[in-house]
TrEMBL record:
Residues 96-123 are annotated as: Disordered. This is 6-phosphogluconate dehydrogenase, decarboxylating 3, chloroplastic. Residues 8-92 form the 6-phosphogluconate dehydrogenase NADP-binding domain. One of its GO terms (molecular function) is NADP binding. SUPFAM superfamilies: NAD(P)-binding Rossmann-fold domains (SSF51735). Residues 97-123 have a biased composition (Basic residues). Coiled coil: none annotated. It comes from the Eukaryota.
Length: 123
């Protein structure tokens, strides 16, 4: 992706909440890159973006392409199932993002606190 075409933000995890948030961000005019481990979710989101008005939403099919499609400093929203999927997603994206280890740990804690089921805080 050329630097002029880089997204301002990225979103990983295109279940119902992730897909709707990505489309909402794009509707407001912010270019957004999206990624999901299941590529059919990326295709579905791109189809919706096209049907809803050629929104500035860009689907990526690999973690590497996803990270490289976002301009620096990279802002990435992760909306995946709590637990091991959060850890796996953060680990995969952090390696590509170049995050330092202590930042990785802090981000993981924040993500887990926001995604904890039934209002409990996970540590």
């Amino acid at each position: 992706m050329e630097s002029a075409a880089l997204s301002q933000i990225g979103l990983a995890g295109l279940a119902v909440m992730g897909q709707n948030l990505a489309l909402n961000i794009a509707e407001k005019g912010f270019p957004i890159s999206v990624y999901n481990r299941t590529t059919s979710k990326v295709d579905e989101t791109l189809d919706r973006a096209h049907r809803e008005g050629q929104l500035p939403l860009f689907g990526q099919y690999t973690p590497k392409d996803f990270v490289l499609s976002i301009k620096k400093p990279r802002s990435i929203i992760i909306l995946v199932k709590a637990g091991a999927p959060v850890d796996q997603t953060i680990a995969a994206l952090s390696r590509l993002h170049g995050a330092r280890r202590h930042h990785h740990r802090r981000r993981k804690r924040v993500v887990r606190e926001h995604r904890a089921p039934h209002g409990r805080r996970l540590r």
